[in-house]
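Consider a typical record:
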Amino acid sequence: MTPSDDGNDDRGGSHSDYTKHDRDGGNHGRGERDGRGRDGRDERGWDGRGRGRAYSDLPPRRREGLDDELIESLHRLDGRNYGTYKSLIGDWDYGAFELAIDRVQSDPYAPPSSLRVSARPEAAGLSAELLETGDQRIAVADFLTRAFERNVRRFARPSSVQITRPGQEILRRSACTVTAERIEIRIQVQLPARGRTIMGHTAAEIFDRDLPNAVMETLDFTNEAAAEYMESLRTHVAAYEDHRALQRAISEQGWIAFVADGSILPRRSGISQLPLEDAVRFEAPESLRRTVTLPHAGEVSGMAIEPGITVIVGGGYHGKSTLLNALQRGVYAHVPRDGRELVATTPSAVKIRAADGRSVTGVDVSPFINHLPGGSDTTSFSTENASGSTSQAAAIIEAAELGSDLLLIDEDTSATNLLIRDTRMRELVAADKEPITPLVDRIGALALQRGISTIMVMGGSGDYLDVADRVLMLDTYRCLDVTEAARTVAANNPRERSDEDEFLETAPRVPARVTRRPDRSKTRALGVDRIQLDKQQIDLADVEQIVEPGQTEAIAWAIRGILEKLADGITPLVDLTGKIVASVADDGLDVLTAYGAKQWPAHLAEPRAIDVGAALNRHRGLRLAVEPARPEQPEESEQPGELAPPPEQPENPAEPAHSE
C-alpha cells in the first residue's frame, strides 16, 4: 500500500477492467433507440410529432433516461453548436448510481458544467455502523472526496472531470455529503469542443468510461479487493473521531492544547503541509506529560498546555514556529499519516499577527492605543489603512469579542512596538508621549480578567519571562520545560515592570444591514487569501487558519448573508457569525444558497465562526448600526492623526465610503 501525496493510501485493487455493461446485469438495450429520453423529447427538445422548440429558444427541460440514452445523445451531438449540450440537462440512471446534469456551461471557455452522482450506501457496501453519527458521516464524506479525486486522476483524461482537492484537514465540504440513506458527490465536467463545435464522441467516452470508472472505483466496498479499501476508510473515520474526542478531553481537563508523543510536526517545506520525512518526533517534557484515553487510539500520552501565558523560546531554526504552527492547525482534525492527528487546540484559538494596511471599523483599541496626538478617540476607531501595531491591537480586541479563549502569537509576524518596550526606550520616551501600551503590560490581565490565554513564540526579548506561567524551549525540535530556569534568569536580571491590572470587556459591535446593488454584484473567492465582494477586496492573508479555498468561498457568502439578510441593527456581530455557522453545521453548506451561492455548490468547505468574523472585520464595506458604548470624555476638536474617526454613514448604505 503506497501512501498518496495527500496523506491517504491509494486503493488496493483496480477497476480498470470495469465497463458499464456489467454494473448490474447490463444496462444496454434498455429504453428507446431513437435518441429520445423518457419524456419523449430528443436532444433538440422536439417530441418527434412536430411539437416543441429547439433548446436555443426554450429553457432546457430536465430529461430522464438511462445511461445508454445519454451516451447515444452525445454521439448524435457531435459536430453541433456548443449550446446544444444543454439538451443533456436531466437525470440519468447508470444502474449502480444516478447521474444528475444540473448545469451546462455556456461555452467551452466558461466554468465547467455541474453534475451530481448519487448512490445508496448499502449498494456501495458501506456499513451502517460507519454512518451512525454526524462525525462519522463527515469523515466518510471526506474520505470519499479524496478517493474520487485520486480515481479521477487514474481514470479520466486531464482536466475533464474535476472535484475539490482536499488538503490535510478533515472538513465538512459540499463536494460530498453522506447520510444513512444517500451518498452524493458533486463534480464538474469540462465538456469537450473543437472551437465552439461539440466533440460528441469524446464526450461520450468521458460519460461512458472515464466518469463511471472513477465513480465505481470510489463507491465499491464490496469486491474482493475492497478489504484494504474498507480498512483505510475505518482508519480515516477513527482519526476524525479521536481528534474530536481529544478536543472534548481538553475542555473537560481545563487545558488549552495537547500534543501527543510521537507526533510529526515539521512539514516538508514552507509551502507544503505534508510531513517531513525522517523528522524528529515530538516528545513531551516529563513535567507536562499527561495521558488521555481516546475511543480508537486508546491511552495516549503527550504534552498538555494549561491556561495562562506560555512562552516558547529557543534558537533560530530549532522548531519554535513549527510547534506554534502545529497548534494553529490543531483546531482541525488531520488525515491519517499526517503526523498531527493527535495535536489538538481549543476550537476558538486564533493566530494573531500584524497586517499593515487592513481596514478596521469601530474597534475599541484603547487597551493598547490611547492619548493620540490631537486627542483622537480610540474607544471606537476606524481606519482603512492600519499600521502594523494598530492592526495587531485591533486583531486582539476582535478575537476577544468573537469569543476566542486562546491567542497564538509569533514575534516574526508581529509588530515589535506592540509586543514590547524595553527599559531604555521607556526611559528615553516618556509614558505620556507614547500612545502604545505594549502587550507585555496587558497580557497578564488578559488572562486573569478575561480568561484568554496566550501561547507566544519569543526569541528576541526576555521581558515575557516575568509574566510567563510556563516557558518551553525548542532545542533541535526537542521540547524542554525550562520554566524554573527562566524564572531564575528573570530574578537575576530584574526589570522595572509596568503591568496593567485591568483588561475590561469591550462593548459588542452591531453591523448595519446593507443592500446589494444588482448592477455591481460580484462574489468571488481568490484562493485562501482574498475575497471579492462587488468592487471591494477583503485581504485575508493574516487570517492564517483558513486552510482551503472552499472555506474562503463559504465565508464570502456568509458575509453576504450577515450584511444583507441577518443584520437587523440589534444583533451583535459575534451572534450573527455564530448563527450562520450553526446553520451550516445543522443543515449543511447548501444553506448558503439562500444568500446567493449557486444551487448545488460543489466547492464549499465549512469555516469556523471566528474566521467568518475575522473576514467581516476586514471588510471595508462593514458599517455599524450602533456605535459601541464609550466612556465619557471631554469634548475636543478633531485633529488629524494616524487613527481616523469612523467614516460617516453614506446615504446609500451599499455604497462604501471608500472603494479600491
